Amino acid sequence: MLNTDKNQSTAAMFILLGFSDNPKLQVPLFLLFLIIYAVSLVGNLGMIMIININPKLHTPMYFFLSHLSFVDFCYSTITTPKLLENLVVEDRSISVKGCITQFSFAVTCVATETVMLAVMAYDRFVAICYPLLYTVSMSPKLCSLLVIVAYLWGIITSLFLTYSILILSFCETKIIDNFICEYSVFLSASCSDKHFSEILIVIFSNLSVFCTLIIILSSYIFIFVMILKMHSASGRYKAFSTCMSHLTAVTIFYGTILFLYCIPNSKNSTLVVKIGSVFYTVVTPMLNPLIYSLRNNDVKEAFRKLKDFKIVYQ
Question: Quick one: pLDDT at residue 44?
Fold first, then answer.
């Protein structure tokens, strides 16, 4: 019986309908998402390069930011090419193994990013609430350890959730009204008992989202209390401005995820779910480097110096 299930799963296929099957919209959407993907790649890789080559940016905050950019680069590369492909090809089928592979890498990136955002919130908490101890507290060893924990949590979460999908059986070709392989795709397509898989998904999804969200909210509560206690208006503005980029990125990332997965599906149309999914899988990786570069004087100064350096040696 087990062998039969495995053979059925191997033969089964998914057909991802993509973002739109309207011929008039496919070319404009392809160009739009291609531009977004290009900006995301250039922005995230550019951020990593600027941080690495500029000694002034060799601080804990930018160390974490470089890893956030790396995760965003990986995430957009995992999800966007398939979206672009489905907008220009007629055959939108994907094997179960291919879908599981995409799901596994995507989960790794999402889970890693949640921890990375929490780590960055803790970094801002130490910098503002304990500025005299910041250099000692956020030592290179601790920063490296926190980043390793973020990647490990992403890998562990991915392994458990991928296992929860691998134990399912898929008996036939299933049409999926989406453009990425989310866990809901596998649950709806499965022809076996899904109870254990659903439990694992709920446990690790809640741990990733809500535990990190508690760390972020707690950090910012202490930060805002400290800012209110400051007597200098310029000091309050400087402290608040150092948090705005991160706070904006957190609001966009968690706001979209909570909207999609914490509101009952009956209240969300298929189009709204697709738009929300596009936002946090495709648009957010593009927005993060823009948010941090446009609102950060150090990054803008480093970018200007890099441009001047190129002009001089041309």
Answer: 92
Entry field: residues in the chain: 314
Q: Are 61 and 123 in contact (CB under 8 A)?
A: yes
What's the whole-number mean pLDDT along residues 41-67? 89
Put the strands of the sheet holding 13-16 in their side by side order.
93-95, 13-16, 174-176
Amino acid present at 110? V
Could you give the CA distance from residue 298 to residue 288 in angstroms, rounded to a whole number?
A: 16
Sign of CA dihedral 43, 44, 50, 53: negative
CB 78 within 8 Å of CB 105: yes
Tokens, residue 40 = 């995301």
Distances (CA, A) of 276 to 12, 138, 221, 259, 313: 28, 35, 28, 8, 44
Task: Provide the residue type at 262 as one letter.
Answer: C
Angle between helices 233-261 and 284-294 (to 10 degrees): 180
φ, ψ at 176 (rounded to 5°): -115, 120
pLDDT tens figures, 75-94: 999 988 888 888 888 778 88
Going by the DSSP 8-state scheme, the letter that residue 266 receives in this structure is: G
Specify which residues 94 forms β-bridges with: 14
Please answer whether residues 4 and 164 qualify as being in contact, where contact means their C-beta atoms are separated by less than 8 angstroms. Answer: no
Judged against a pLDDT cut of 60, whether residue 30 lies above it is answered with yes
Cα–Cα distance measured from residue 59 to residue 228, given in angstroms and rounded to the nearest whole number: 26
- Domain 2-312 belongs to what architecture? Up-down Bundle (1.20)
CA–CA separation, 55 and 63 (whole Å): 11
- Give the DSSP letter string of 275-297: HHHHIIIIIHHHHHHHHHHHT-H
CA pair distance 266, 291, nearest whole angstrom: 33
Query: Average pLDDT in the 102-120 region?
Result: 93
Longest Cα pair distance anywhere in the chain, in angstroms? 73
Q: Is the pLDDT of residue 164 over 80?
A: yes
| Per-residue confidence band for 193, with pLDDT thresholds at 50, 70 and 90 | confident
